[in-house]
Amino acid sequence: MNKRTAITGLGMVTALGFGAEANWAALVAGRSGIRRITRFDTTGMRASIAGCVDLPEDQPGLPLSVSARAQRLGEAAVGEALAQAGLAAPFDGPLCIGMPPVEIEWPQRASFSGTTYPALIASATGQQALYEEFLFGGAATRIAERFGTRGVPQVVTTACASGASAIQLALEAIRRGEAKMAIAAGSEASLQPETLIRFGLLQALSTRNDDPEGASRPFTLSRDGFVMADGAGALILEDEEHARARGATILGYVLGAGEAADTFHRTRSAPDGSAIIRCMQRALDDAGLSPGEIGYVNAHGTSTPENDKMEAMAVRALFGELPPPPVGSTKSMIGHTLSAAGAIEAGICLLALRHQMLPPTINQADVDPDLGVDTIPVARPHAFRAALSNSFGFGGQNVAVVIGAAD
Q: Which residues form the Ketosynthase family 3 (KS3) domain (predicted)?
């Protein structure tokens, strides 16, 4: 437990582009990647904007499936992280990855026309390709095969905390001595008609369709919901001694992680924010840090009325009499990447530490004064040594990760 877990590689794909440094440049510039959806017809939908990552394989009227897109995005992020770490396949460690709960989508369901069980069996006969495409965890298995990772990939689905849960799994595997290094990642590609309609029915999405770039506005009085997005993030974690022995460049550290279940409601957090506070405190305890040693909080910051209020209240409670550090939401620029958010945003914390710069929360014309936190309306230099990355999922699945600066 006294050994530190180093980060030696980082990969990232968002609506702002491919590559961690390209994303960082766009984030610091305050650029939004939110735009109108052109991948499929959004007629009649409450929301028609998103943080889209369209791929060359997408064909007009026939975009890639959720699992195929998640695989492509995950491969891009993991490949970049491995290259930065000076590693290549086969990778001598496990893949821990947050993934969406891959389901057969409407277009594929249409191929099963039978209404009775025997008819369903008959219509599915010979559909091996369809089975392999939508086998739960199949995308993760193909990523693991591509990079030759050790053992069965550890696929975790904890809603919007999945990417952070993957980091926690990798961290614990290294601490227990089960692996000297691990890939911690998250990949998300649930942006398709059915998911967009479902979130729309929950009234969870921003409907500011006429102003895509201004739609995601966390911590403001005019926030009206989150913006869905594609994306992937990956970090190479290593036992510090192992990383130094092979001459790797240490970019930073995963100092700790904490989780806490809410169990209050399928989509809402407990009104007192108790689980969120517990989650952050456990991460700090695991890292051996006090609240005052955190210099930046990358908030879950979804731009929904309830989440932002709850999170700001929880952060203030965590810091008590101390003034809370700057609290920013990069979802204002890249949207909400759901299962990938925890991995992407931990990576953003790492970049902020390396550059000693805070990325902004854009669209802050009407900051909610009742929240009582510094929401970083513009990017600015900032000297700090540790950051807290928050990821809170539907169903009360809360995970926080502490990222530390390199020595």
A: 2-405
